[in-house]
Design brief:
alpha+beta, eight-stranded mixed beta sheet, 44% helix
Length: 771
């Protein structure tokens, strides 16, 4: 591609992105002013994103409601819900839209060229030629509306986003996240809730909704991202012809403003609701939150990710341990939010009490002062650097396409500096810099400057209140009753008519002709040849090794699967707890803090999991496997297997203090999951009565497991001896040589190294015993 000869676009910057093996090009569309970023490489999983800076002016949730609404039909694709239909004929690998505190993004991804173009077309038409101007019902459906069946019925409020945010505001973690952001940035867009506060959403008017779209959804305020192996020139020409050339440059005031630092730290209190059966004791969230420079300081951003690991996130990290030792909270969490203009570093004590807030603040400060004076553990810093460097180099984002995550990373700088989208697409130099700083005072100076001497700090306390939700519901009911009584007979009838008209709009199917306009893949658009499977069965010393021979850039992905055929089903909850204790307790060679750092210095991580594999030819047959996995450079395969062997054979379950800390934290995390994903937990519980897989999942991570853990946590003194005995017993039953199968992904060189190590690994496992 001749980057200088793309008509109607001005090339602002080009760069070879060695870290991700790509070429980057930054353009500006001459006529419309659209910002365009191309990341060209050989990845067939192509990604397109169009985003807009959308700083909220209030907490009505306008950006969020608009994100929902533009996807409800457009000029070329007028069907009411084109995306439901589009998905039926798509091979997309990602299709979604997201509202952030300062931006709204519409990303798609697909490996199929025709599908990719179809998705781009529908998204571009949706954002620029949305039907919201023709159909007010879209705003009322997706945002909010008064609902009343007849004159005698009670008046209520309904709406997709309104109901979604009522759910979000019931989660204490979500409430805390919002209050942290709002507390630190009182004079900027971050002081408002872009998703929408349910108490404020009904203040949003349709006219303001349309005005927001006309102002911010203009190409001059757009950020268009294309990634992967495609004809970039053709795509840019298509964007120009079909959409961008229809607009002229328009000044859009959407820049995110910097918050002036505080003169001194501030405190903020907020309530969250608990049920009448829950206790208010040990249910408060205490948080320390500091603003850390700006998102355009790459080395600073990576350094604070490393510091989060070394100070709080790693087991036994000094700030976390100091708080736990003083019994300030049962679960210590942290976060480093660098997806905004001014990143925020937070330390959070969950399951604490308001009376502990002074001791919480004092303990955090005293511990940080000691670390500055006596130096941060160098092994922890090295482990943190290696952990994040491995993560960036590997670029393994699970089910998410790489190109999608690279795009989100580009927005972390591009949104705040139109000429700097490549900042977080390159990391090697930053990590080389951090490695050189480990033996200097660099990290201590950052702690002193940003966490001890910094005045731009807030202490946010989230306190429980019994029946708060019911109280708010009563207040809303009374407010709506009063409002209804204030309406004239004509006004009331108008609301009844609008309710019925909206329902009619919702129930009426899209016109068949409109549905036919939605682009679908045809059979001939799909490649007939499937992707090859790289599975080869080998046996080493009677142990099956399933080898996947693919290029992995020198990284070996090894999973040790132990068949649990000897473990009775009633012992499964103990096995589930075993997976949370391994790696996080002392062994005969390491303290748990030393172990975690050793793992992250020598490998890309070690993790454990429990999985059930059904036999789809016989629904009554299944295998339950305890899996320990690691990713590691080939030369360190032996070290990784030796660490795993040390963990499974010599973990010291007798450390009662540490065991209780793990159980208390686990209970806290399970409660958090039930708060944020209660629908999934309930669905799994329901299915457990007729599905063996669901029953197993409930035993190891659902309501059954929560009750098991709660009983141990509440009666630890009575249960600890039996618990320690059972953890030892199930470990000895599982980790036996004859139970082992190995799954390994690497090229042939990597496999040869594994073969040499596996016999030695098996040799010292637990002997064959019965229950």
């Amino acid at each position: 591609m001749n980057v200088n000869e793309i008509e109607n676009y001005e090339l602002l910057k080009s760069k070879k992105l060695k870290d991700i093996n790509a070429e980057g090009y930054l353009y500006k569309h001459k006529k419309s002013g659209a910002h365009v970023l191309l990341v060209s490489n050989d990845d067939v999983n192509k990604v397109f994103t169009i985003g807009f800076r959308t700083p909220p002016k209030d907490s009505t949730g306008l950006p969020h409601i608009l994100e929902h609404s533009v996807l409800c039909g457009s000029k070329l694709f007028p069907a009411k819900d084109p995306f439901v239909e589009l998905v039926k004929g798509s091979l997309n690998t990602f299709l979604n839209a997201m509202t952030y505190p300062d931006k709204t993004l519409y990303p798609i991804a697909s490996c199929n060229d025709k599908d990719f173009k179809n998705l781009m077309h529908v998204y571009m038409d949706a954002v620029f030629f949305t039907n919201i101007y023709e159909r007010e019902e879209i705003f009322r459906q997706e945002g909010w509306h008064y609902e009343i069946e007849d004159e005698k019925s009670p008046l209520t409020i309904n709406g997709v986003v309104y109901n979604e945010m009522k759910g979000a505001f019931s989660s204490p973690e979500d409430v805390l996240d919002r209050e942290i952001l709002n507390s630190l940035f009182p004079d900027t867009a971050y002081s408002f809730e872009s998703g929408g506060n349910p108490e404020v959403i009904p203040e949003l008017q349709y006219s303001d909704f349309l005005m927001f779209h006309s102002k911010y959804y203009h190409p001059s305020n757009s950020y268009i991202y294309l990634y992967g192996n495609m004809d970039m020139k053709e795509r840019l020409q298509w964007l120009d012809t079909q959409y961008l050339s229809k607009y002229d440059v328009m000044p859009v005031d959407s820049a995110i403003q910097l918050q002036t630092s505080f003169a001194s730290p501030i405190e903020r209190y907020h309530k969250y609701s608990i049920s009448s059966t829950e206790t208010e004791e040990n249910n408060t969230y205490l948080s320390f939150n500091a603003v850390i420079g700006t998102g355009l300081q790459k080395e600073l951003t990576y350094a604070f990710q490393v510091l989060e690991y070394a100070l709080i996130a790693a087991p036994g990290a000094p700030v976390k341990q100091a708080l736990l030792d003083k019994k300030i909270g049962k679960d210590i969490m942290s976060s480093y939010n660098n997806g905004i203009l001014q990143p925020v570093f937070s330390i959070i004590a969950k399951n604490a009490n308001t009376k502990d807030k002074e001791e919480f603040a004092g303990t955090v400060r005293e511990t940080l002062q000691k670390l500055v004076a006596n130096k941060i553990n160098r092994s922890a810093l090295k482990a943190g650097i290696n952990y994040y460097e491995f993560k960036y180099r590997e670029a393994d984002f699970g089910s998410y396409p790489k190109g999608l995550i690279y795009g989100l990373q580009s927005f972390d700088s591009w949104l705040y500096d139109n000429k700097e989208p490549f900042l977080y697409l390159e990391s090697d130099e930053a990590f080389d810099f951090l490695k050189k700083q480990v033996e200097t005072d660099y990290f201590e100076e950052l702690v002193d400057k940003y966490l001890l001497q910094n005045a731009h700090v807030s202490y946010v306390i989230i306190e429980p209140e019994k029946g708060l939700t019911a109280k708010m519901d009563r207040e809303l009911e009374e407010k709506l009753k009063t409002y209804k009584e204030s309406l004239s007979k004509e006004e009331l009838q108008e609301l009844v008519d609008k309710t019925h008209n909206l329902r009619k709009y919702q129930e009426e199917p899209s016109d068949l002709e409109d549905l036919k306009k939605i682009p679908m893949l045809m059979r001939e658009d799909i490649e007939k040849e499937p992707e090859p499977l790289y599975n080869k069965e080998n046996y080493v010393d009677h142990t099956l090794i399933l080898h996947h021979d693919i290029f992995t850039n020198g990284i070996g992905y090894v999973s040790l699967l132990f068949h649990m055929q000897k473990v009775p089903m009633e012992w499964i909850p103990y096995v589930a707890l075993l997976r949370y204790t391994l790696i996080f307790m002392d062994t005969d060679r390491y303290s748990y803090a030393e172990l975690f750092n050793e793992i992250n210095m020598k490998t890309g991580g070690i993790a454990s999991a429990l999985n059930m594999y059904p036999n789809y030819q016989d629904v009554t047959d299944y295998k339950i496997m305890f899996e320990i996995s690691s990713k590691v450079f080939y030369d360190n395969l032996g070290i990784s297997l030796d660490l795993i062997k040390n963990i499974i054979l010599t973990t010291k379950f007798e450390n009662e203090k540490r065991l209780y800390e793990i159980i208390a934290q686990l209970k806290s995390r399970l409660e958090m999951n039930m708060n944020t994903s209660g629908h999934s937990v309930a669905a799994m519980r329901s299915m457990s009565y007729f599905s063996k897989t669901a029953y197993f999942t409930d035993l190891i991570s659902g309501i059954s497991f929560y009750r098991f853990i709660s009983d141990i946590e509440e009666n630890f003194a009575l249960r600890k001896d039996r618990l320690i005995e059972m953890l030892k017993k199930v470990a000895a039953l599982i980790f036996q040589p004859q139970n082992l199968m190995v799954d390994f992904t690497a090229d042939k060189d990597g496999y040869k190294k594994l073969e040499k190590e596996i016999c030695g690994f098996k040799k010292n496992l637990f002997p064959d015993t019965d229950t």
